[in-house]
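Write out the 3D structure for:
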Amino acid sequence: MTEVADVLDRYPELKTEAQIVSLLSLLAISKQGLREILERYNVDSPLEIRERISKGAIPGHPAYEDYLDAIAYSSDVKAAGDALRKKLNEFLS
């Protein structure tokens, strides 16, 4: 039985395409998660959530957990975007 990894190793273009699709998926999921949290608090960045908690404008629970999730999503968006640019350049070269 042929394994997917074996097929991808034989066809590097296909492997790169699969990686691009995976990165696009991660980017879309992370952007959506970040957008939902920011909209929930009507802010433009995760740091604004923390500032509003510090000022007492919103309760710490569950806002602080949402702030941490937003930071993680934001980090994932940046990492996936950077990796995607690299893979697309590799693919198009």
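Residues 60-92 form the longest helix (33 residues).
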